[in-house]
Design goal:
The protein is α/β, with parallel strands linked by helices. The protein has a single domain, classed as Aldolase class I (TIM Barrel, Alpha-Beta Barrel). Helices cover 46% and strands 15% of the residues. The protein has an 8-stranded parallel β-barrel, surrounded by 6 helices. Helix 4 runs parallel beside helix 6 and helix 7 (140-153) crosses helix 8. The longest helix is centred in the middle third of the chain and has 17 residues, at 108-124. The termini are far apart.
């Protein structure tokens, strides 16, 4: 029972490997950590996605990356090209930044078309999309409109933030996004959720994913609470070869 309860929390976490100065050895170690702790996914810089997908193959941990990151101002053509390459590289979940400039300008037709281009391409490949809002720059009305558009387009998740804006996830925003997104759309918290209490609070609010770089400390604390033994990342089984 403790193991089942642990997995209900570990499978909420997208282990984030997006900091710009991350060395290659930390990407490798991060993938092994995610397998050992049975996270939901590894969200990694695009240039290392193919290797990430190889390491995670058969582990149950999904390979994910970012599109239009971190500011969302890329052309739609660029975002589609990024998404196409990510899918070729083994990406299973793509975290797509909306065009924040167009959102704050109220250009909803552009926003809808921009998001649709990547969502439709990704769904045609049998994979999933999380749409990143970057809530620190938006009004509540803009967040609600984005939730409605993402529901209309069939996005798999709506996500609070990149983690690189002026602030990250807030519980008020998570409640608002859950309330205004359709039942088929999940919600992801990103930025600022750094401890177990925050993750458990997210679960109470109906949030299914949390982006975190503090995965190990969060899950070590939970394993200790549940009376589960500590984990050894060095013994994690990952796919051989590249």
């Amino acid at each position: 029972m403790s193991t089942e309860e642990y997995l209900r929390v570990s499978r909420m976490i997208d282990h984030s490997l997006l900091k710009p100065a991350t060395p290659i050895q930390d990407f490798e170690q991060g993938c092994r950590l995610a397998v050992a702790y049975q996270a939901a996914s590894v969200c990694i810089q695009p240039h290392y996605l193919a290797r990430c997908a190889e390491l995670l193959r058969g582990s149950g941990v999904r390979a994910s990356t970012v599109i239009g990151f971190p500011h969302g101002g890329h052309t739609t053509v660029s975002k589609v090209a990024e998404a196409r390459q990510a899918l070729l590289d083994g990406g299973e979940e793509l975290d797509l930044v909306c065009n924040i400039s167009r959102v704050v300008s109220g250009d909803w037709d552009f926003v809808r078309a921009d998001l649709r281009s990547v969502i439709d391409l990704t769904h045609a490949a049998g994979q999933q999309v999380k749409v990143i809002f970057e809530n620190c720059f938006l009004t509540n009305d803009q967040k609600i409109r984005l939730c409605e558009i993402c529901t209309e387009l069939g996005a798999d998740w709506v996500k609070t933030s990149t983690g690189y804006g002026t602030s990250g996830a807030t519980f008020a925003d998570l409640e608002l996004m859950r309330r205004h997104s359709g039942p088929g759309v999940q919600v992801k918290a990103a930025g600022g959720i750094r401890d177990l209490a925050g993750v458990l609070r997210c679960r109470e609010l109906g949030i299914s994913r949390v982006g975190a770089s503090a995965t190990q400390s969060i899950l070590d604390e939970y394993r200790q609470q549940l009376g589960l033994p500590p984990l050894n990342v060095s013994t994690a089984v990952v796919s051989d070869g590249y």
